[in-house]
Design goal:
The chain is an alpha+beta fold. The chain is built from 4 helices and 5 strands; from the N terminus they run ααβαββαββ. Strands 1, 2, 3, 4 and 5 form a 5-stranded antiparallel sheet that branches. The chain is rod-shaped and about 120 Å long.
């Protein structure tokens, strides 16, 4: 039997086809054994001659011989087919593994190219108090701040710059851009008085 697809990659349906063929062969082998069973239970090895060396008259010799021959041929086919099923499954798994590795490499390359196009951060969030305006806005620990209102990497000198922007923006939403997990995220932050210290937390 020719290899499924002859040169093209093995598919799941190729494997299913081989398995169907295997099931058919197994059914044929079973039918041949049943036929032998029907002939006074002669199996594959019982003698076909009587004690005096004459062909047995109580069984259909032609049918028995044919069934035995068919069983041997079918078992050989079955063996070869099982080998093909195994090889096809190996190829299928190898291709899945290859595809997975390729997908991962592409995702990594995409992340790398995104990283290269991400703006530079000038500060990192090291704490966010629960219930504070910063927490409510969705700011998270380890967010890298790229823009905080009018402050960005080009005009940032020290944290006093941010404090000034916060004081002038009490009660007004500020546009804050951060890098989180390799992606640019926009956060709307409104500095305001709350139970804790400062206007942000």
């Amino acid at each position: 039997m020719a290899e499924p697809g002859g040169g093209r990659p093995v598919t799941v349906s190729d494997v299913q086809q081989l398995v169907r063929r295997k099931d058919e062969i197994e059914a044929q082998i079973k039918a041949c054994y049943e036929l032998l069973e029907g002939q006074k239970g002669v199996g594959m090895h019982e003698p076909l001659v009587d004690s005096e060396g004459f062909p047995r008259s109580d069984i259909d010799l032609y049918q028995v011989r044919t069934a035995r021959h068919n069983i041997i041929c079918l078992q050989n086919d079955h063996k070869a087919l099982m080998k093909q099923v195994e090889e096809a499954l190996h190829k299928l798994h190898a291709r899945e593994k290859e595809k997975h590795a390729r997908d991962e490499a592409e995702a990594l390359a995409e992340a790398m190219s995104q990283n290269q196009s991400l703006p530079q951060a000038f500060a990192r969030v090291n704490a966010v108090t629960p219930g504070s305006p910063a927490s409510v806005s969705g700011l998270q620990v380890d967010d890298e701040i790229v823009e905080f209102g009018s402050v960005n990497v080009n005009n940032f000198q020290n944290l006093q710059n941010i404090a000034t922007v916060v004081q002038h923006s009490e009660g007004r939403p500020l546009s804050v851009t951060v890098i989180r997990g390799g992606r640019r995220v926009h956060v709307g932050l409104t500095p305001k008085r709350w139970a804790g210290k400062g206007l942000l937390g």
